Amino acid sequence: MTHGIGHNRPPQPTGWQRHCWTRARKELVGERLPLEMIKVRMARARELGLSFPQYRSILLGGGRDITAFLFTAEGLHLKLTRELSIPDAVRDKLGTLRRADLLALSPSGEVPRQFADELGSLAEVTIKDAGAEPEPHYSWSQQRAALRDLLRANAVPAASVVMIGRGAHQQGWAEAAELVKYLPRDEYFAESA
Hints:
globular, alpha/beta, 5-stranded parallel β-sheet
């Protein structure tokens, strides 16, 4: 299948590239990862609030460790009334995250920095920064720019950011920005909410 201009999927590796990658990996770590390396990765998955299979798929897909999470308001189960409210289980899970920046996308009409401050005090965590979520009428390139501007301002590479959100349109934002992974909120907060 030939992709046209603007597709957001990289070309698939050829058979030769796949062979070279597989062989180089085997030479580096052998047929299986050493037990010590698996224990380190399991500990890191716990620090990030991920199951080991989720973390492993992110490592295999992106090739590098996670440096940040990007949350949408819907991804955090926020209820936007006159005051923000967040489920206790979600607050508890956010409090357990270690060695990863927390970024957020503020809903339409909210001032991003104020939203980040309010969310941080509500969730009792430090939200490093927030940006305005892409508007529904934004083009693919505008969606990409909205997320990439937030990441660039915080010196965070897209290839190490996992986005937690809700719905196909938010998954589209993650794909447009070429983030390493998009996780639906129900999957990430499965045991939390």
